Amino acid sequence: MKKVLLVLIVALISQLSFAQAPKFGYVYDDYVMINLKEIKDLQNEITTKREELTKQLEAKGQVYQEKYALYQQSLKNIANVTTESLNAALKEVQDLKKEADEFQANADVELQTLIRNKYNDIRAKVDDATKKVAAEKGYKFVFRRNADANNRESTPILLYANDNGRDNLSDAIIIKMGSTPPKPQTPAPAASTPAAKKPAPKKS
């Protein structure tokens, strides 16, 4: 009787220990980011903004080149140009050059600010989605596991996981963010070996 009771107690403790064991999940952080629609939209927005700023800068540069050419022409005909008009032309050229330089500097800052703010906003949404997915699936701990360990940290957070992807929350987070994860690639079927032809029977 004592032996049976002991076995039951051990079994009960084992079940309780198993039931209380925390679940550990992981996320391919870089995989999630590159497959988000918001990241792709941001890339398109950056491209459009960069092209817009480039066109504006080129337009300012064109005006500067034209005014500078007129100023150079005035220097060649300096005998027919007053000092006041020459100084005014020089100041206009200098102001245009300064304006173009300032525009380029401000454009660089504007673009960097856009990228930083939008990326940080997406990053915060991913973190929030990770927490929600983990809570829904009952995970107490979620680790970062990047395909490229040097992407965001010097060493990977998770070195190995032998779970056949069961605890990989990456696709679930992408879906939670309103995007569609890429379809898993299926290996190409192996080429079949043609059957060897049987020799024709000899004629008797």
TrEMBL record:
InterPro entries: Chaperone_Skp, Skp_dom_sf
Recorded GO CC terms: cytosol
Signal peptide coordinates: 1-19
Keywords: Coiled coil, Signal
GO molecular function: unfolded protein binding
Residue ranges, annotated region (Disordered): 176-204
A biological-process GO annotation: protein stabilization
Highest taxon in the source lineage: Bacteria
SUPFAM superfamilies: OmpH-like
Positions in coiled-coil regions: 36-113
This protein's record includes keyword Protein biosynthesis: no
Biased composition (Low complexity): 188-198
Family: Belongs to the Skp family.
PANTHER family (alphabetical): CHAPERONE PROTEIN SKP
The protein, known as: OmpH family outer membrane protein
Organism: Emticicia agri
